[in-house]
Amino acid sequence: MWNVGYHGLSTQTPKEEYCYTDFPPPSSFEEFPTRTQMVSYFNDYAAHFRLNDHIRLRTRVVSATPKDSLWVVKTCSVDDESNEDTWTFDFVVVASGTFGKPRIPTFSKQEIFRGKILHSSDVQSLDQFRGKSVVLVGFGKSGTELATHISEVARSTALVFRAPYYLLTKNVGPFNHKNVIYTRLFEAIVPLKAAPYYYKSNWMIRLFQLLMAPIIWLFFKIMQVGVTNDTFKNNKDLTPNYPVVKHLARICLGSGMTPDQFYPRVHAGKIKAIHSNVDHYLPDGVTLENGTNLQADYIIMATGFVGEAAQVFPDEIHEAFFGGPPSAQSALWRNTLHPKWRNVAIIGHTGGLSNICCSEMQSIWLAGLLANIVKLPDETTMYNQMEERKRRVWPMCIFPRNIQFYDTLVEDLGCKTLRKKGFFANYLKPYKPADYQGLYEEALANKRGL
């Protein structure tokens, strides 16, 4: 994603949160690192830990077939498919990510449009949009980020979206997001009805929310008023039709951190934000479902990706891991393992505040499983708890319960969940990947009784 991302792509998570536990980003990085900086970071990480010697690039997996308790994996070169190799492994990990095939919706009369239709990932430069009319479709991170940059050079910029989101901004009302959403306190005050705990919520959380109900209500009310008045400025097209607290369970479904200048440029008229959808194309633009005609030299589909996984496993296994809607794909223990096939795992399909840290935490948990540190419950228990998670819109999204999800993995490893020194630090200060540095070594030492 970072190698081929669109122009202006940056992280939506601060650099101290969007990193590995044992490899902090350079202090020279921007607060929200750019695409170039992230590519550099990953290259440096691979070099530092000497991973390049273990990585085979330009190699495609043809098939992965279970044989007895092992896996027979066939691969081929992408440059010469006749050049095949066969491998035998004890365990297989799928780490192909969720950014697969670009999602490009089609609309009627597309063949008469004289301009160009692009996907957001195709935008590598702003030069082509200079003095042109541009319409972007989609309200997520890529749509708002590209609209902000393109509006600086285009003659006109319009952003069309079916539904607005509560996009994260650096400051949510009077609160700086970094000092709020990364803390245990924030996770404790998010109502359980809005976002149930990952697997369990103890009586202390329920009692805390009951006793603090008026203060919790006031906190989210202040946030709601701040967002509506200061950020949206009561623009009905930008304002979702549900309260901000209910958005917390939906935040992985397309929203993210928006650029500082997006909303100011909308309010200044530099970006026309329209709550509608494309109905059909015109020779020189599009007609929206609300009847508005928009002139366009370029149509940019900021509509994300289809998380397609190449079918390399037998049908039954592929269907269990990747088949059906997202809610069906989430039937995994710790979002990683299937009870029926315990020698294959998925890493990198769980959405949260920091996908890098989440993937690493799952990897550490998996390493603990392979080292016989983590013990799995019986199959019935695993299935029952996974079914409980299906009550979420998308259980593979752990926000706003990131820390609680990590706690579950840390508990499985037999390590302490409170990683900071002191009660107030643990509950009021933001948790960072660095707090989990040395977790695997700690688990290994605990197992050996050291």
How would you describe what is shown here?
This protein is of the alpha/beta class and 450 residues long. Helix content is 30%, strand content 16%. It is built from 14 helices and 17 strands. The chain has a five-stranded parallel β-sheet with strand order 6-15-7-8-11, with helices on one face.
The residue ranges in which pLDDT falls below 50 over 5 or more consecutive positions are none
Characterize the biggest β-sheet.
5 strands, parallel
Average pLDDT rating: 88
Structural class: alpha/beta
What percent of residues are in strands?
Answer: 15-25%
Q: Report the C-alpha radius of gyration, rounded.
A: 23 Å
Instruction: Give the N-to-C terminal Cα separation.
Output: 41 Å
Count all strands and give the number. 17
What is the oligomeric state here?
A: single chain
Number of helix segments? 14
**Relative helix content:** 25-40%
Overall 3D geometry? globular
Strand order of the largest sheet: 6-15-7-8-11
Layout of SSEs?
Elements: H1 35-48, E1 59-67, E2 70-77, E3 84-89, E4 92-94, E5 101-102, E6 116-119, E7 133-137, H2 141-150, E8 156-161, E9 171-172, E10 175-176, H3 184-189, H4 203-211, H5 213-231, H6 244-247, H7 262-267, E11 272-275, E12 278-282, E13 285-288, E14 293-295, E15 298-301, E16 305-306, H8 315-322, H9 326-329, E17 344-346, H10 355-370, H11 379-389, H12 402-412, H13 423-428, H14 439-448
Parallel strand pairs: 4-17, 6-15, 7-8, 7-15, 8-11
Antiparallel strand pairs: 1-2, 2-3, 5-16, 9-10, 12-13, 13-14
